Every structure is written in structure tokens, then in C-alpha cells.
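User: Please fill in residues for this 255-position structure.
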């Protein structure tokens, strides 16, 4: 079976859980050497261990993506592994505070923008600098279906994810001709451990039933399904994909 990312070093941020964990396993199965990154050591190490147990290659590098210097160091350590950074899945983020805009504090707004948007800027910046020195590469950013539409009580998250889509397109315009492709995935609701627990909670089950109805496919997504889309975007098979905001949402945005 072909392994489209064979021996290519790929950074995955927020790899300790949810989409990051599932995508890391998919990318490793495609042959990539995964630089697993998370702010929580235990979950990051667990993802790296799961990859190695499955026969893949992985190294855990702890990094706080709210700190620019941590991202610069992370990229340098990734390059040092095999001499080149080929790809990155910039996935780390925080969820919305579930408050209307007028109830948000400036601190809550700043935290969401810093982690969900500014950290993606820093990641792209240092990843591109490394890739331009070693023959190019491919970057995929996690936006959201809320990077295209809005819901109530999520203004800081919606603003940040719209920003990620714009940033992706701007970076694609800057670097596509230089050999670095930049794209984004826009997941719908994905069955991360948190979502799986909430769907079993009677207090939340009715809400999730309504949300499921917004997904024409009739269910929520799985982390590995987002990972499969990311693997394709990172691979040479997607060589003409640049600046795309690709919905992986079971049709959520079509409703």
C-alpha cells in the first residue's frame, strides 16, 4: 500500500487529544514522522506512544502556542530530526466561552484570538521560513465551519476562525509560487472525547440531536476523518490545492 507521506516530518499541534490525536495516527500511518506537540505533557506523550505502538515514528515536543518563542523552538526541533520540515497541521485551539458578545471579558477575547488565530500566524511564519530553505512543503490549518458562518454566543471563536480562513488564503497567495502550499480544513462537529461524553448526558442530548440534524450525513464526524482530509492536503496528490478552505463537515455548510 502506498504511503504518501513516507519519511516526511510533519508537525501536529494540539496533538494530545481529539482531532489532533486522531489526525496524528492517520498521518503516521501514511508514513509521516510526526512531531507531536501539545501544552499538556501527559496527553502529548500518550499520542506519541500510540503512534509508536502502531509502528509509526513520533517525537513529543512540549510547546505553549500562546508563546511565540515556543513555536520558533518547536519548528527548529522538528527540522533537526531529519534536516527538513515537510508539513504541518496547525490544529491547536480553544473553544468558545458560550457567552453573548457583551458578556465577554477582554481577557476572554484576547485568549481566543491569541490561541486560535495569532498562534496560527506564528506557526505559519516559522514553518514557512524553514520550508523555504529546504525545498518547500505543505501546511494545513484547522479553521471550522464557523470560519464561514456564525452561531449565537461564540463571537470570539467565530472571529478567530474567520481569521484563520483569511490568513490561510493570504499565506497561500504569498508562498504558493515559492513551493509552500497553505490550505485549511473546516470541520463540523467531531466526536472528540468531550463531545462523545456530552452526547450521553441527558442535559445536552436534546441539543446534540438538533445539531446532528444540521449535518445532512446524519451523524457527527470522527477525528480520523478529519485526519484523512489533512493527509490528502499534505500529500503530493493535492499538489494543485492552495488557499482552499475545505469543508469536512458532513454537509453542515450546505444546509
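Assistant: Residues filled in for all 255 positions:
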Amino acid at each position: 500500500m502506498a504511503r504518501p507521506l513516507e519519511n516526511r516530518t510533519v508537525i501536529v499541534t494540539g496533538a494530545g487529544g481529539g482531532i489532533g490525536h486522531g489526525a496524528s495516527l492517520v498521518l503516521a500511518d501514511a508514513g509521516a514522522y510526526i512531531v507531536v506537540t501539545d501544552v499538556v505533557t501527559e496527553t502529548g506523550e500518550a499520542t506519541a506512544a500510540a503512534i509508536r505502538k502502531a509502528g509509526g515514528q513520533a517525537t513529543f515536543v512540549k510547546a505553549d502556542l500562546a508563546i511565540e518563542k515556543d513555536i520558533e523552538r518547536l519548528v527548529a526541533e522538528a527540522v533537526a530530526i531529519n534536516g527538513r520540515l515537510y508539513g504541518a497541521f496547525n490544529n491547536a485551539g480553544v473553544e468558545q466561552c458560550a457567552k453573548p458578545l457583551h458578556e465577554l471579558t477582554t481577557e476572554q477575547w484576547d485568549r481566543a484570538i491569541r490561541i486560535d488565530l495569532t498562534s496560527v500566524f506564528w506557526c505559519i511564519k516559522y514553518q514557512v521560513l524553514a520550508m523555504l530553505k529546504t525545498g518547500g512543503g505543505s501546511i494545513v490549518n484547522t479553521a471550522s465551519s464557523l470560519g464561514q458562518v456564525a452561531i449565537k454566543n461564540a463571537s470570539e471563536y467565530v472571529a478567530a476562525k474567520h481569521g484563520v480562513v483569511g490568513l490561510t488564503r493570504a499565506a497561500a497567495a504569498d508562498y504558493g509560487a515559492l513551493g509552500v502550499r497553505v490550505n485549511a480544513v473546516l470541520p463540523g462537529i467531531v466526536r472528540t472525547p468531550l463531545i462523545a461524553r456530552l452526547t450521553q448526558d441527558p442535559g445536552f442530548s436534546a441539543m446534540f440531536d438538533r445539531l446532528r440534524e444540521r449535518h445532512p450525513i446524519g451523524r457527527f464526524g470522527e477525528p480520523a476523518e478529519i485526519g484523512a482530509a489533512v493527509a490528502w492536503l499534505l500529500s503530493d496528490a493535492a499538489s494543485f490545492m492552495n488557499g482552499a478552505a475545505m469543508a469536512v463537515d458532513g454537509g453542515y455548510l450546505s444546509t
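For context: The mean pLDDT is 94.
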